[in-house]
Amino acid sequence: MSKFLSLRRPTTISKLAPFVPQHPDALPREIVPQWADLLPSAKLPDRCCPVHAKDLSRGALGQPVWELPPEHGFDLQDPELRVVRRSYLELHDKHLREFWTEALKKYLKRRELINNEERVMCTLRQLNQYRSFLFQRYRLQLKRLLQKLGSDKAMDDHNAKVQTHMETVPDFEEKLFIRRNRAAGIYSKKMDGWKQTVE
């Protein structure tokens, strides 16, 4: 009931947010219904947490965690790593995938470092740090979508102005025809002169 009483007017960002997909590892596999309504920038609450700590994971064994998409480019939003402190994670190193044999995987399962699905376990604090990192990616994708929307709108406005200008000028087609004939005549004269010099 409180959601209906606190309804807000939809903004441009709220309309574009569904078009930016969230990372599949942003939420655990088993969650309470309230967690599904959390914003990408919100932390998962620790109070009365029904999900056991061993069910929290940031990705599979050998899957990079702090990897940015290829189209990310140069970014200075967090140059000193204050928002998210990225550290080296051996279990998420993609260059060590061939190193993890079945015997080592059994050892990691016995130590409860990975689960039966070979996903690396983490704490709630580590998962919230990872969610902060994913929110940076989400915000960048949303920003690019806004820029694309702005450029498309500017192009549409320009085309509309050109269309109205063509409609308001009565002799536009006639002037355009005269200019095309002039350009064609100048071009043919230059080509004839060039052919004579070559011959």
What does this structure look like?
- The structure is a single chain.
- This protein has 199 residues and is mainly alpha-helical.
- The protein folds into two domains: 19-151, no CATH class; 170-199.
- Helix content is 47%, strand content 4%.
- The chain has helices at 2-5, 12-16, 33-36, 102-110, 124-168, 172-198, and strands spanning 57-60, 119-121.
- Strands 1-2 form a two-stranded antiparallel sheet.
- The longest helix is centred in the last third of the chain and has 45 residues, at 124-168.
- It starts with a helix and ends with a helix.
- This is AGAP011106-PA.
- It comes from Anopheles gambiae.
Report a brief summary of the structure.
This is AGAP011106-PA. By secondary structure, the chain is mainly alpha-helical.
Overall pLDDT metric: 79
Q: For the largest beta sheet, what order do the strands appear in spatially?
A: 1-2
The amount of helix comes to 40-55%
The secondary structure category is: mainly alpha
Largest sheet: 2 strands, antiparallel
The helix tally amounts to 6
- Number of beta strands: 2
Order of helices and strands: HHHEHEHH
Assess the beta-strand content as a share of residues.
under 5%
Shape: elongated
- Report how far the terminal alpha carbons are from each other: 89 Å
Low-confidence stretches: none
Radius of gyration: 29 Å
Protein name: AGAP011106-PA
Q: How are the secondary structure elements laid out?
A:
Layout: H1 2-5, H2 12-16, H3 33-36, E1 57-60, H4 102-110, E2 119-121, H5 124-168, H6 172-198
Antiparallel strand pairs: 1-2
Protein name: AGAP011106-PA
